[in-house]
Structure formats: structure tokens, C-alpha cells
């Protein structure tokens, strides 16, 4: 069901209960908070907790096992099909979804998503499989339309001819502010089978704290697009606020949610997300120790990161850097950084957009050199398979 119809009132109700940053990935205005003292309202979704647990080693490793596929244009989202059935990859600018064979690298276009208007940082962005994909074969997508950013779902039928394997999109949520920059775009189903979406403030810094805006938030929805049961604010899709541009969402092995965020001029961030918490933008950027705002787990100068996708593996969060052109490892103990972040692949593959768990100690990594800000080399863009520790 489309939720845009009551988004403004829902967010208003949410924000009234509150007491109460991301870096550009390049040449356009940037697309990166501080320690939380305020307690978050109770929610049914798993909240980060401080627990005694094993600490990963201070130093890790990354080995590129192989190049899975080359020749991709403006790839953005990646969703692995179950059972080694292939990798679905979205093209931001072409508005297509392509299946990549994991063994041969062969590409098959599923189809073009109608209604996408690609411009600047907008277009066809994140994709995710339904938590009931085995029975419903639904693919969810977040994209920029002529009027807003929205989430749709489409039936994927691999038995149909290439280019016609996507059914008509069913809009489940709309009304997210759009802009030339800061459209957010990452979507993922959590361990609770609810749909999470990272949004941006579309270049309007006031929206992150705006009581009537869905911009600069993390949203938590049912698969049908309704505010998820147990959200911190009654009848609201808002899960957290005070974000600048969220493009990375991942859960650790304790079901705790982390998010990457672009800062403006000073600090990019990795945040541990608590329901109902305020992450400070535009009041603070990076660690500020300011009451009422949540400090990030880790932070980076904006030229070293501009983080997009994140994934969890081997006790660490792995974060893809666009402007920074490197893969960051952030070893965790509890919800805190247990050792300084460690950089890998610096400058070797250019801009890095998306990283997704491939199970165990393996990751899928997607480059982003054909997005208008990179310097494409022969074979760009590509999907890599990594082994990490």
C-alpha cells in the first residue's frame, strides 16, 4: 500500500515525540554525528546493545579471488539470488536490472524499470529481494521518479525472454524527497523481515530534522509499505533521523543495524542505529559529544571515504568508499570500533559503490567508475569476489 499519502502526518507525529552527518562523492555538493545521551523509545526491532563478545583481530586481510563480471554501466545495487542463482545488479542511469551468472560472468538483462528519471545522483538505486522470495519472487527497487524517490516491487520471471522478465512495478512507498544530490537509496530487509530504507535530505539540510519530511531518515516498513509494527513513533515509518545521506545498511551477527553516512566537509560516518535516535545533521557532523545526538562508531575525513554500501563479515563492518577509492574494515566489539579502521584496495579499482555479503568470509564488491565522477578503465565497471578476514 502506498504510504506517501500519510507520510507527512506520520513523520510529524513521530518528530513531535523527539526531544531533541555524509561527504560528497565528488564534484557536486557532498553526499558523513556525535554521542547519544538521550534514550530511544522501545521498539520491537533489534536494538544495538553492549554485550561481552569476542574482539576481531586489529589487523585483517583482503584477497581478490576473481573478477566476476565487467562492462557494467553505472551499477548501484546488488542482490544475490538464493542458491547461487546469480547476482542482480541495478544500473542507476540505464534504469535496468541485470542478472550476472556467478560462474561465467554472463549478463542477462531482466528489463527496464519504468518511471525512473536519472539525473545527478538520482536514478535506479538500491535493490533487495523479498524475504519471501522463494514463494513470491518479488524484487524491490528504490528509484528517483519525476516527482520523488519511491520504492516499488516487481515480479521476476526468469522463464520469460531476456528484457521482459520484470513484471509491472507495484509502488509500495513514495513521497521521499528527491534532488540532484543526496537521494539516499539503499534498501534492505532486516532480520525481522521488515524493509529498511536510507534516505537523503536531497540537498536541503533542514529536512533531516524537519518534522514533516521523510528526507534524511532511516525508514522501517512492512513489505507492503506500511509503518512497521514496533517502530519507535506510533504510525510512523521513521526509525531514526538527523541523517544527511544514508547509502549503506547492514546488520551484524547480533542483529544490530549499522549505517554509513556521507558528511559534508569534515567527517564521513559509520553509525550504530538505535530506534528513535537523532544522528545530528545538520547541527553536528562527526563526533561532537553533544547531548541528544548519537556519535558515530567511526569517522573519516571526506576525501578518504565518501561511503556508500556496507556489509558485515568476520567480526567487522566493511565499507565501500567512493571518493576515497578504498574498502574500509571496521572491526567491532559490541557496537563500538574495537581497533582503528583499516583500508584495503586503495586506488586499485577506483570508486567503490556497493559491498554485499557472499556468505562466510566472502564479499561481493561493485565498482563505480562510470557514474560521471570516476575515470573508467578498460572493463569498468565490474563486480569482484573477495575473501576477507
From TrEMBL:
Residues 28-59, 368-389 are annotated as: Disordered. Residues 372-389 have a biased composition (Basic and acidic residues). Residues 29-58 have a biased composition (Low complexity). Coiled coil: none annotated. Residues 72-373 form the Glucose/Sorbosone dehydrogenase domain. InterPro entries: 6-blade_b-propeller_TolB-like, Glc/Sorbosone_DH, Quinoprot_gluc/sorb_DH_b-prop. It comes from the Bacteria. Gene3D superfamilies: TolB, C-terminal domain (2.120.10.30). Residues 1-25 form the signal peptide. Keywords: Signal. This is PQQ-dependent sugar dehydrogenase. It comes from Streptomyces tagetis.
Amino acid at each position: 500500500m502506498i504510504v506517501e499519502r500519510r507520510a507527512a502526518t506520520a513523520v510529524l507525529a513521530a518528530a513531535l515525540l523527539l526531544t531533541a552527518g555524509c561527504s560528497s562523492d565528488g564534484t557536486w555538493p557532498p553526499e558523513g554525528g556525535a554521542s547519544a545521551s538521550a534514550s530511544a523509545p522501545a521498539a520491537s526491532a533489534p536494538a544495538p546493545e553492549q554485550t561481552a563478545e569476542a574482539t576481531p583481530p586489529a589487523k585483517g586481510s583482503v584477497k581478490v579471488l576473481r573478477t566476476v563480471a565487467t562492462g557494467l554501466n553505472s551499477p548501484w545495487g546488488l542482490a544475490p539470488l538464493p542458491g547461487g542463482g546469480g547476482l542482480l545488479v541495478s544500473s542507476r542511469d540505464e534504469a535496468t536490472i541485470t542478472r550476472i551468472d556467478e560462474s561465467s560472468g554472463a549478463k542477462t538483462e531482466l528489463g527496464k524499470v519504468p518511471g525512473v528519471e536519472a539525473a545527478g545522483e538520482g536514478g535506479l538505486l538500491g535493490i533487495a529481494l523479498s524475504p519471501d522470495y522463494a514463494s513470491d519472487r518479488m524484487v524491490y527497487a528504490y528509484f528517483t521518479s519525476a516527482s520523488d524517490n519511491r520504492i516499488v516491487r516487481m515480479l521476476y520471471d526468469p522463464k520469460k525472454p531476456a528484457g521482459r522478465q520484470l513484471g509491472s512495478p507495484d509502488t509500495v512507498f513514495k513521497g521521499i524527497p528527491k534532488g540532484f544530490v543526496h537521494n539516499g537509496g539503499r534498501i534492505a530487509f532486516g532480520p525481522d523481515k521488515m524493509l529498511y530504507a536510507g534516505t537523503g535530505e536531497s540537498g536541503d539540510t533542514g529536512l533531516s530534522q524537519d518534522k514533516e519530511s521523510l528526507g534524511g531518515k532511516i525508514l522501517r516498513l512492512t513489505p507492503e509499505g506500511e509503518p512497521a509494527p514496533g517502530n519507535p513513533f506510533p504510525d510512523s515509518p521513521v526509525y531514526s533521523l538527523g541523517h544527511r545521506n544514508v547509502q549503506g545498511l547492514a546488520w551484524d551477527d547480533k542483529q544490530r543495524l549499522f549505517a554509513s553516512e556521507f558528511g559534508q566537509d569534515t567527517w564521513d560516518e559509520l553509525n550504530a542505529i538505535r530506534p528513535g535516535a537523532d544522528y545530528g545533521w545538520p547541527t553536528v557532523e562527526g563526533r561532537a559529544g553533544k547531548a541528544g545526538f548519537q556519535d558515530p562508531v567511526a569517522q573519516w575525513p571526506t576525501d578518504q571515504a565518501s561511503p556508500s554500501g556496507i556489509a558485515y563479515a568476520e567480526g567487522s563492518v566493511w565499507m565501500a568508499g567512493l571518493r576515497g577509492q578504498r574498502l574500509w574494515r571496521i572491526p567491532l566489539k559490541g557496537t563500538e570500533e574495537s581497533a582503528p579502521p583499516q583500508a584495503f584496495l586503495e586506488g586499485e579499482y577506483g570508486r567503490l559503490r556497493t559491498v554485499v555479503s557472499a556468505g562466510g568470509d566472502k564479499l561481493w564488491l561493485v565498482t563505480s567508475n562510470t557514474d560521471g565522477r570516476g575515470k573508467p578503465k578498460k572493463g569498468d565497471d565490474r563486480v569482484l569476489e573477495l575473501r576477507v578476514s
